[in-house]
Amino acid sequence: MSLSPKINVSSHPLILSKLTQLRLHDLPAKDFREGIRAIGSMLIYEASRHLPLVDVPDLQSPIAPFTGQTIPLRVGFSPILRAGLGLEDAALEMFPEATVLHLGLFRDKVSLQAIEYYSKLPSQVTADMVFLLDPLIATGGTALAALNMLTEWGLSQSQIKIISVLGSKQGVLNVSEEFPDVEIHIGAVDDILTEKGYISPGLGDAGDRLYNTFH
C-alpha cells in the first residue's frame, strides 16, 4: 500500500536522530519530553511551509521604509489530552497568539475505541487553520475521533493538519482514507501494529513516558 501525497513522512536527519533517542526504553522522562518538543517544533515548521502570506505596507526599519509579510490566518492548536500536551509548548513558540482547543480522548484498552471525555471547542469556529497535535497514531482511532469533532465543529478537512511524532502504517492509512484532504506531518511510520494496538518497535506509551506515570 502506498502513502497518499497528503502524508508527509519526515526524512530530516535531526528528526530521525531525535526519534532514535525517544525509542530507547531507558530514556529519562525529562529527555523524552525535550525530544518530543524538539520534533514537534521541526514538524510544525515544515507543516507551515505553504501557509499563505499577505503584504504589510508602510513599515519602518531602523534604516528605511519597507513592506513586510504576515500570515493572514487565525491559527489554532488542538492537543489531544494528555499526550498531545507534549507538543503544545513547541506549537505556541511558533504561533504565540494561536487559540488552543483541548480535546479529551482516551483509547479503551479492550475495544481500542476512542472515548471522548472533554472538549474545549467554542460555540463558533475561531480558527482558519488548526494543527491537531497527536504524538502517536497507532490504530488511528483517537485521531479519527478528534477529526470528527473538528469537522463537526465546522472546519473543512483542508483546514486541518495533523502533527504526529510516530505512527503505524495501518493507523496512518486509516486516518488518510477516512479524511483524505487532511495533511499529516509525521516523524516516521513503523510497519507493525500489535494485537494490543501498540506500534512496533514504536516508543511505548507517549503519555506515560512524558509524565512518568508507569504502573
TrEMBL record:
Statement: the UniProt record of this protein carries the keyword Glycosyltransferase: yes
Taxonomic superkingdom: Eukaryota
Catalytic EC class: transferase
The entry's keywords: Allosteric enzyme, Glycosyltransferase, GTP-binding, Nucleotide-binding, Transferase
GO cellular component terms, semicolon-separated: cytoplasm
Family: Belongs to the UPRTase family.
Annotated protein name in UniProt: uracil phosphoribosyltransferase
Source taxonomy: Eukaryota, Fungi, Dikarya, Basidiomycota, Agaricomycotina
